[in-house]
Description:
By secondary structure, this protein is mostly helical. It has one domain (8-17, 26-86). Helices cover 51% and strands 0% of the residues. The protein has helices at 7-15, 31-43, 49-58, 64-71, 81-86. α2 (31-43) packs antiparallel against α3 (49-58) and α3 runs antiparallel to α4 (64-71). The longest helix has 13 residues, at 31-43. The model has no long low-confidence stretch (mean pLDDT 84). It comes from Gemmata palustris. This is SMI1/KNR4 family protein.
Amino acid sequence: MLTGRFQPFLLREILGNPFRPVPFSPSWRTDTVLALASQMYKSREFSAMPILADALQDAGCDATDVLNHCRGPGPHVRGCWVVDRVLGKE
Length: 90
């Protein structure tokens, strides 16, 4: 069971900021972005999150919340709101 101090982190990791939803453009779902997100989701290994941020930026993503989340310290987990949005698991 998670202790109280980790619960808010986990909620932000999975839900993002519920008070500031981030629009997600389908045009950001390039082959590279989808491949990176899919691999992380399947393997449960999220060390490539900064690379996903670069790929999203190359695809035209300028959403600061998305890019900062990907480049943030983590740890990231399966259910990460950015990876789920990329994969259409909203």
